[in-house]
Structure formats: C-alpha cells, structure tokens
Amino acid sequence: MEINIPQGIENELTKTVSESESASNCGSGLLPVFATPALVAFMEQTAHASIGQVLPEGLTTVGAEINVRHLKATPLGMQVRCHSKLVESDGRRLVFQIEAFDEVAKIGDAVHIRYIVDSKRFMDKLSQK
Predict the structure, then answer these.
(1) Of 23, 12, 14, nearest in space to 103 by CA
(2) What is the DSSP letter of 92?
C-alpha cells in the first residue's frame, strides 16, 4: 500500500468538559476534573480527524502509541482546545505532535503514532481472533 500523506497537516477541535469525562466517572481518580483518559481520547480524536479528508476511501487510521503529559487539571464545564500537527509521515506510519489547552493554560502535550490501515482488511483480520 503506497500512500503519501504530506507532513504539516494540522487540526484543532474544541469541547466543553462534561461529567462523563471526569476522573471520578472514568475510574482514573476521585475528583470531578477532566480525566487523563478523556484527554488522551480527545488528542487521538483530533489527530484522527485531521487525516480523514486526505485518505483514499476504504482507508482509516488506528492509534498505536501515545506518550502523554497531563500537565494541569481542568474543571468540569470549562472549554478545552486540542491542536494536532502531523510532523512525520513514513508510508503507513504517521507521527503527530499534539497540545491541549483549557481557557487558562496549556494542560497537556503528546507525541502520537497512528497507522494507516485498510478498514475491511483490518476488520477481517480482527474477526479471525
């Protein structure tokens, strides 16, 4: 599968932190703050969405690795903005630099690796497990 995705693709998403994304709800802590697992999911969502428009039909990306620093807590109800940038593209392997901010400060950053896969082949292989 020969795919050439240009480096430099950027994306930004914004959301309001909800109760369902709290540490107490996600099981990652007891406090009503934006949970690290929810931050990770939002980072992956931002990177994934950036590539969707440039992939040929039938292809998608799957997350394979993420190295996250959750730097500051964010209260429920506050806006969070996540920005991703594709910094490396090597065939099917894509490397993103990601930063997240709430209304006050930078709350996290990450290096995230995704792989381009053929959706049907991926699911067919999975069904053989």
Answers:
(1) 14
(2) T
Q: Residue 24 corresponds to which amino acid?
A: S
Mean pLDDT of 104-120: 97
Partnered with residue 34 across adjacent β-strands are: 22
Residue 112: other Cβ atoms inside 10 A = 23
pTM score: 0.95
Gap between the Cα atoms of 63 and 13, Å rounded: 18
pLDDT at residue 37, as a whole number: 98
Write out the DSSP string of 12-76.
EEEEE--GGGBHHHHTS-SSSBB-HHHHHHHHHHHHHHHHHTTSPTTEEEEEEEEEEEE-S--BT
Q: What average pLDDT is seen over the chain?
A: 95
